[in-house]
Write a structure and sequence with these properties.
Oligomer: single chain
Shape: elongated
Distance between the termini: 34 Å
Number of helices: 1
Strand order of the largest sheet: 1-2-3
Number of domains: 1
Radius of gyration: 16 Å
Largest sheet: 3 strands, antiparallel
């Protein structure tokens, strides 16, 4: 039996790709957990420069990520973050 794929799934996948790209630019790690289930979609592991300046180390901080897809009716940017309101 074919699996139903809502149109918003493609927006969600695109958002996770963008999140991954931004996290890697920040020199942190992004791990995708699952794109086919509800709940947490990925994790960001916080990475900091080593004190000796030779590479990086994990800090022990983990940020859980859940991508959402909504129709945006207004948007504003504040300090590099996008705040959106949907109907």
């Amino acid at each position: 039996m074919p699996k139903n794929v809502p149109a918003t799934k493609f927006t969600e996948v695109k958002a996770l790709d963008r999140i991954s790209h931004v996290v890697h630019e920040m020199k942190c790690l992004f791990r995708l957990i699952s794109q086919d289930e509800f709940g947490i979609d990925g994790e960001i592991e916080v990475v900091t420069p080593k004190p000796d300046g030779e590479g990086f180390q994990t800090s022990g901080g983990i940020i859980k990520v859940q991508a959402k897809s909504v129709r945006v009716t207004s948007r504003r940017m504040t300090a590099g973050l996008c705040h959106a309101r949907s109907d």
